[in-house]
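This entry is listed as follows:

___
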Amino acid sequence: MRGSSCRMNIAAVLNGLLVSVLAAVLWKYAKLREHAYSVEEELLLTQQSQELSQVRIDYHAALQSLQEEGTRMVCTGKMHTDRICRFNYLCYSNEAEEFVFFHSNSSVMLPNLGSRRFQPALLDLSSVEDHNTQYFNFLELPAAALKFMPKPVFVPDVTLILNRFNPDNLMHIFHDDLLPIYYTMLQYPDLDQDARLVFMEGWNEGLHFDLYRLMSNKQPLLKEQLKNFGKLLCFTKSYVGLSKMTTWYQYGFVQPQGAKANILVSSMEIRQFTRFLMEKLNVSMEESSSGDEYIVVFSRTINRLILNEAELILALAQEFQMKTVTVSLDDHSFADIVQIISRASMLVSMHGAQLVTSVFLPRGALVVEIFPYAVNPDHYTPYKTLASLPGIDLQYVAWQNTNEENTVAFPDRPWDQGGIAHLEKAEQDHIMKSKEVPQHLCCRNPEWLFRIYQDTKVDIPSLIDAIRQTVKTKPNLKKAKPGIIVHPGKVRDPKCQASVQGTNEARLTVSWQIPWNLKYLKVREVKYEVWIQEQGENTYMPYILPHQNYTFSENIKPFTTYLVWIRCFFNKTLLGPFADVLVCRT
């Protein structure tokens, strides 16, 4: 017994030693990983610093150039909401956290707005229009003040200085940042792939910083990182601001959210941008060799869940006789998600930022957006608007849960995740009983947050019925290349000829030649719009005509002067300009 007890004691001691050694190794591993992360971050900052120092221009030459050639600001756009400015030697003080424009006798500032540049700002740093957290301005000093300031570090890269709006949200990343960055850089030849992006909003990198890295060959700089390069940085050549031409949605800061009133982007610009991004991500743009069509369900894993997702996947596969796969931001790289979605016939998802990936869907594909209980799809339409952009060729279906029993709410969560426990009892009761979130402004409406963060059990027959109303069999992917959107020119050689038939009867004959560019186009349908207005009157008579010569007699008076406008349009919606007005007297 004594020998057995001894062996047990030795085993216990060895076991204890083994546990101690293992704990020490794990602790050492954890410390090494922590050190590795800090070293990696330090190396990144060192690399950025070396990038700048390797190409840093001669300090004295740069300072002399700043003082003798002078700082310059030349802006495009009449209003702060559409203005982009180009600067030579715009500086940034890390101490004051302000941009500085140093004046000399050779400085140029166009437009020279004086104090009007504070009403409310010189420009918007973000593509989100007229948001008071996105305004840009600068302080002014005489160049002589540089003698009393820290020695400036001159940044030789051409830079694009901007604010990211919300780098943790994919919709904001694509809509507010990446697309505007891409098309701002296309506007200015020296904003090429060797330009450097500088983000001044103060956020950290965010969840998808690798997407921003795709926009340039050089590492983007964050506001916090500027401190590593000195107290005063001077950008030898910089552009400040972003183009808003590619945005299609407003988020409800002034009025309830919805499509922008004046959308200027079409499928042509969206598809060109997605091709650029897919190339950068090394995603193949070739059609699948297998030819299999499939449905993608974009799965959310933290909140706003589809509670019966497995049953939904099975039902979609059975109903449409198509393979159905899931993707999620947690389980797939972004490149893999793009690869999968770019060949899908249908994308199904809860309402959320992940649906902006529908920009990668092929033409003819279907977007199915699921809304929680009490959230009206007509009030939240960023992806419906995207799917309806000219020439985008996407089909769209919205489905809303209308059965309160099929929803799970979370009133005890933090307020920004839909919790309402912090509210007065009466307001909590009102929100719980409400059947529809009323239209509201952004961004902290508690009823909206409570409802949008609900989990949903999808009524599968109802959802499939909604899809079937749009797609009778299967989504029909369009293999042909998209047609280029071309508008007609002015009609040529417009003429009018009048004749009087009697004291109360007259005729007006109007003729014209086809637009010059029409003879080079293959167009399904060509028609002409003619407006006739009696001179001095406020109303006009509109006509839609299929041919180029027409005689009008109805409502045409003898001895009267008429103004006539003519224009061509293609395929019902592609309008051309009006020709010069004809003045015709009967």
